Amino acid sequence: MFSVSVRDHMMIAHSFNGEAFGPAQRLHGATYIIDATFTREELDANGTVVDIGAAAAELRSIAEALGYRNLDEDAEFAGINTTTEVLAKTVADRLAARIHAGAFGPGASGLAGIKVTLRESHIAWASYERAL
Question: Which of 3, 72, 92, 125 has CB atoms 3.0–4.6 Å from 116's, for a disulfide?
């Protein structure tokens, strides 16, 4: 399996519901480094996994849409704890939707999957991987 990764970042604010979250139940901020990895079994006609410029631009667009916001105020996340795991899935699903909509160009039709990793510190991160 071949893979290509692109990286970006976003800063958000949120809080969590539930005793398991202790002090994180209060409003707090998080800065995430986002790694999006695209996979495929065979390279496209250009010898690439994906158009890396398109991948970086689409990831940037998603990070901008989520970043510098209090996710507690976003109707999409009402009643949901926006944990690192949930946000990794959100980014992966949004990338998948953009691939299926053609934003990555025709060469992206051969992509097999996406893995998104959100790093919230040098010691903690979460990932979500999905097929396309």
Answer: 92
Torsion of CA 16, 17, 21, 23, to 10 degrees: 70
Q: Regarding beta strands 2-14 and 28-40, do their DSSP bridges make them parallel or antiparallel, or are they unpaired?
A: antiparallel
- Mind listing the pLDDT tens digit for each residue in 86-109? 999 999 999 999 999 999 998 898
Structure tokens at 56: 């970086």
Q: Give φ, ψ of 42 to 5 degrees.
A: -125, 140
**Could you read off the pLDDT of 24-48 as tens digits, one per residue?**
999 999 999 999 999 999 999 999 9
